[in-house]
Structures are given as structure tokens and as C-alpha cells.
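Q: How do we represent a protein-ligand complex in a form that can be generated cell by cell?
A: Start from the inputs.
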Amino acid sequence: MPERTKTGVPGLDEILDGGIPKENLVVISGDPGSGKTCLCLEFLYYGAMKYKEPGVLISLEESEEEMIKIASFFGWDFKKLVDEKKVEIIAVELYDFEKLRATVEDAITRLNAKRLVIDPGVVFRLYFERELDARKRILSLGRTLKKSGCTAIITNEISLDKTSSLFGLEEYVADGVILLYHTKLEDRFIRSIGVLKMRGTKISEKLHPITISKDGIRILAKQELFEEV
Ligand SMILES: Nc1ncnc2c1ncn2[C@@H]1O[C@H](COP(=O)(O)OP(=O)(O)OP(=O)(O)O)[C@@H](O)[C@H]1O
Ligand SMILES: [Mg+2]
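Then emit the C-alpha cells for the protein with adenosine-5'-triphosphate bound:
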């Protein structure tokens, strides 16, 4: 059994047979507002606080300040983690893929990071006019990350009506795929999580309900989504 990186997110390691296999690359795909960013911040927070694993957050949408603010809503003091060099947040402009790759590598080395998040990863697509170029580059980024010693999460904004992303990022690069749903069921929205794949891992075959509160995301690992509805 591979060594694992415990996410620390309540309930998540339980449905992942103990955690994400170390140095794997996982894509978290999900509906808008389904909790992708929240889960990523929580992964970095527990990494730094509980497991003494520094983490790097590459933010392709929000500024560092904005990210710190979002984390503070959940009671996570990222300002302190940044000051203590346990977390580094890098807001990257969207224009040069090679530059992005170099930035990622530098930050990982600087912090001796064990966790990496790129959020939202979907904007990779905007770098390229041709799908083939995108695939090649994303593959090469995946290889870079593997060599870096980090367990990495890249988020992907998709509507889960269609579970495959535009460039097949999941199929070609990721070792694991986690799906976050925020879907309408009759007269309300419900949140749930499912693991589509995770190499070397006995995964839960079920969809599990999740809650988001002021303490962040929690996965109800013992419950199945449809047992009560
Ligand atoms: N204190 C709270 N209690 C309950 N729900 C909350 C609380 N704080 C935030 N939320 C909800 O948690 C979700 C957080 O979503 P988040 O931004 O992580 O999703 P996302 O998948 O990254 O979205 P996007 O596709 O916009 O990037 C939002 O739907 C928000 O309404
Ligand atoms: Mg987000």
C-alpha cells in the first residue's frame, strides 16, 4: 500500500482509504460553488497545522489577500501561516505557461513544500488555442509535479452533467479524481462528494453527503447520499 498524505479534511481520508497516495496528482472537479476552493484551503491548512507539511497555493483567479480573506471566513489564519512560511500563496497572471511552471517549481523548493494546490486549474485551457498543445503542456506539468515531492490538487470547474473535462486532464494526468456536486434535488440543493478514481486505493463507491459550515467542509463518510431521500 502506498504511503499516504492525510488531507485532514473531516471524513475525506476515511473514504480515501487513509488519504491521497503520496506525491499523487488529484483533480477536484465540481459544479460552481460546490466547495472546491474551500476543500483546497482546508487541505493546506491541516497540512500546515496538523501534519507539519508546508504547502503552496497557486491562485489563478484571486489575489493573495482575497485568498487569505476567504480562508478567514472559515476561521483559518492563513496570514499567520504565510508569515511563518508554512504556506505560500502565489497569484499568477495568465499569460505564460512556462513561467507558471518555473514559479511553481521555485515555490516548492523555497518552502520545501509537501502540498501543492492550483486553483482554479481550469484556466489552463485559456493558455492554448489548440487542444493538443494544452494536453502536452498539462502532461509535462504533471510530470514536473510528480518529481517535486508534493501531493498536488488541481481544481477543475465543470458542470457534472458531463463528468469529463474538456481536455481530458483527468484521464491523462491525474492519479485521482474527486467530484464535488452541488445539485438540485426537488425543491433544494444538496452537496455531495464522490471519488471517481484514486490509484492504488480502495475507494468508496458511494456518493457521500457533505456539509459546509463556518468550520469548512465535512464529509459524512458513514452516510450515503440517497439513503435518506
Ligand atoms: N459559513 C458557511 N456556512 C455554510 N456555507 C458556506 C459558509 N461559507 C461558505 N459557504 C458556502 O461554501 C461554498 C464555498 O464554495 P467554494 O468557493 O469553495 O466553491 P468552488 O467550487 O470553489 O466555487 P467556484 O466554482 O466559484 O470556484 C459556497 O457555496 C458558500 O456558499
Ligand atoms: Mg473556487
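Residues 30, 32-38, 73, 120, 157, 212-214 surround adenosine-5'-triphosphate (ligand 1) (CB under 6 Å). The chain is about 30% helix and 30% strand.
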